[in-house]
Specification:
This protein is an alpha+beta fold. The longest helix is centred in the first third of the chain and has 15 residues, at about 15-30. The chain contains 4 helices and 3 strands. The N and C termini lie far apart (about 45 Å). Helix 2 (about 45-50) runs antiparallel to helix 4. About 35% of the residues lie in helices and about 15% in strands. A hairpin with a 2-residue loop joins strand 1 (about 60-65) and strand 2 (about 65-75). The chain has 2 domains: about 10-35, no CATH class; about 40-105, K homology (KH) domain (GMP Synthetase, Chain A, domain 3), CATH 3.30.300. A 3-stranded mixed β-sheet has the order 1-2-3.
């Protein structure tokens, strides 16, 4: 099956009720769950919003070419931030255009770091 992509622009003066109504209609139309996040020129804010509902503690910009960052989340929310089979992390990276490395707050990632 061919994957279809769509973009929807929601103007800032839309009320939350209008946005909720629009996303419900789109979900019925496309048969998929639709998330709406606020856009921000600030990469840290945009990346944090893209990883919701996980709580992002920090976003550290690592490189700009290609754009990549290291995101820290509470230990108990690591699996939420990454998502089932990495889906949340992949969608956030695709949406933002950034390579996102998600790490737990404790720093333990199940591997030895050489930094």
């Amino acid at each position: 099956m061919e994957q279809r992509k769509y973009a929807v622009l929601i103007y800032p003066d839309f009320s939350l009720q209008e946005v909720a109504c629009l996303t419900s209609a789109l979900a019925v139309w496309f048969g998929e769950k639709i998330d709406v996040i606020p856009y921000s020129e600030d990469p840290a804010e945009f990346i944090s919003a893209a990883l919701s509902p996980a709580t992002v503690l920090s976003v550290e910009i690592v490189e700009n070419d290609p754009p990549s960052c290291r995101v820290t989340v509470p230990d108990q929310q690591l699996s939420l931030a990454i998502g089932n089979k990495g889906q949340n992390a992949r969608l956030a990276a695709k949406l933002t255009g950034w390579k996102i490395d998600i790490r737990p707050e404790s720093g333990f990632y199940g591997e030895d770091e050489m930094e």
